[in-house]
Design goal:
The strands form two sheets. Strands 1-2 form a two-stranded antiparallel sheet. It has a two-stranded antiparallel ribbon with strand order 3-4. The protein has one domain: Hypothetical Protein Ta1238, Chain: A, CATH 1.20.1200.10. The protein is built from five helices and four strands; from the N terminus they run E-E-H-H-H-E-H-H-E.
Length: 181
């Protein structure tokens, strides 16, 4: 099977279900940013050497594939074989956040994104996640996307923030605090 189909050569692509839309449609922008985030998580995994962090990042990649597939079709379409994120996914993410926060110093200042290489990349992934969230919020104003995609992306950005901080703790890399002058 060839990787190219030529069906998108005129600036349109197919949603799940077959409907063709412009490649710059809001739904495609949201899906593309979810894909970008998934790739960014892959970069984070390549810079990471801690098994517990890799396990969480791998879970996130699975979630993002499911989320991308869910968003790739209008909600009204039957999504046979497409695993949608559900409340249990949100609970799992919240559990990770709660567990990691017990191992972190309480924040009293903003911190600069950075630290060790893995932490800096996770902070970058967090910003891509926030952009994806903004696009899905915009899409949700136009079409029904359900509640879980919005909640998941909001929680995921929080998880990425604490995961970056935890990576720094594990490598004994101090956080640089921002002090307003």
């Amino acid at each position: 099977m060839k990787i190219y189909t030529k069906t998108g050569d005129k600036g349109k692509t197919a949603l799940l279900g077959g409907k063709r839309v412009p490649k710059d449609a809001l739904r495609i922008e949201a899906c593309g940013t979810i894909d970008e985030l998934n790739s960014m998580i892959g970069v984070c995994r390549s810079a990471n050497s801690v098994k517990a962090i890799d396990t969480i990042l791998a879970e996130i990649q699975v979630d993002l594939f499911s989320l991308g597939a869910d968003l790739a079709a209008p909600r009204e379409k039957m999504k046979i074989g497409v695993k949608q994120l559900d409340k249990s996914t949100q609970v799992r993410v919240e559990h990770h956040i709660d567990e990691l926060e017990t191992q972190l110093e309480e924040l009293k200042n903003f911190i600069f994104p950075g630290g060790n290489r893995c932490a800096a990349l996770i902070h970058l992934a967090r910003t891509v996640c926030r952009r994806a969230e903004r696009l899905v919020v915009h899409l949700a104003r136009e079409e029904n996307v359900g509640e879980i995609p919005l909640t998941y992306l909001n929680r995921l950005s929080d998880l990425l923030f604490v995961l970056a901080r935890w990576s720094n703790v594990l490598s004994n890399t101090p956080e640089e605090k921002w002090i307003s002058e």
